[in-house]
């Protein structure tokens, strides 16, 4: 007999993120009756007795807790005690615990965060970052590449771009030093004022340009709009306001025709849903009805952002809040995640052409957005362009079709655990482990993973779509 399935819908549920916010644990306030009047002697006796009882109670409670604990946990506690007290070298017990936490993770998407680490994650989820806004990658020959450069970060505003080689560093006014990726990271971390990084699209340090910046708090941007006439992205308020604004940046994209807009979405994080709404508004005001949506390198993020952004692409449905994905849990429960609205007809026509760029770094919420677009007819597989290695027989997106929830311990640590599989809304397809593939009918484009001075993949797609 088929098991009956529990099912419910959720729309913008803030406790149900793609990587959900932690469960909040609150302790009920406790109180005690006010003591009556007693003699000093009786009070002293009562205090002494209370102390004795507390001591006995604590011992009994500790013993009860200890012997009710799984014997394997007791054995681990004993081993750690011996390790800390008897090893011939000093042991960083916090580092040991970190290794233990990593070892017990059941899959690569589950992880443990200390309270301090999770505080930074929450801050970043609100679009507030610290530092210069780069992620570095080390090539096999030891060269250092700029793997990501966050929009509106100090590095991006200084002129650094994804795909550049980071070739040196120095204090302002001093000669360039060279070093390993670790040396560069250590230098950046130690700076309190302005400094210079040297970068270029070639590995020749003599051809590098200097870029001056400093570490600071900034509003991270995750969405960029461009058309043949102008561009918009998140920037700090020029009037000194606390909030960043979606501002004109005057970087039109050559190769676009006058009916097509380009939107790059880097992550489902921060204020990306609001940024995307502004981008769609600009697209409408500019009279563009075709769209190239660039999801390359977008590894996903929060489900609430997916629910908002997918609202623009639910084409062939009259439902005002259509399902854009659903989760299936181990116990059979199904949760439907619905769009915040259905805005397709306000921005597109029946003949609008929507094109999607993706690569092996496009994962999770990105793949769900593609699935919703396919299932509701906004695109089909032939509208998807995937990055491909030269000589490869196939190519695909990452293939992450599972979701995580976060659980908070009484000590404030957070356990991010994979709890459900994710399915496309109409077809019920789960792409976990497979991704969206060229063999499904998508187009493969041979191009390097990181763009150089020229974005080979984007230029190829523009030539195909806008010719």
What does this protein look like?
The protein is α+β, with helices and mostly antiparallel strands and 467 residues long. The protein has two domains: 128-217, Pdz3 Domain (Roll), CATH 2.30.42.10; 220-465, 2-enoyl-CoA Hydratase, Chain A, domain 1, CATH 3.90.226.10. Helix content is 27%, strand content 24%. The chain has eleven helices and 21 strands. The strands form five sheets. It has an eight-stranded mixed β-sheet with strand order 12-11-10-13-14-17-18-21, with helices on both faces. Strands 1, 2, 15, 16, 19 and 20 form a six-stranded mixed β-sheet that branches. The longest helix is centred in the first third of the chain and has 29 residues, at 40-68. Residues 227-448 form the Tail specific protease domain. This is Tail specific protease domain-containing protein. Residues 1-36 are annotated as: Disordered. GO terms for molecular function: endopeptidase activity; serine-type peptidase activity.
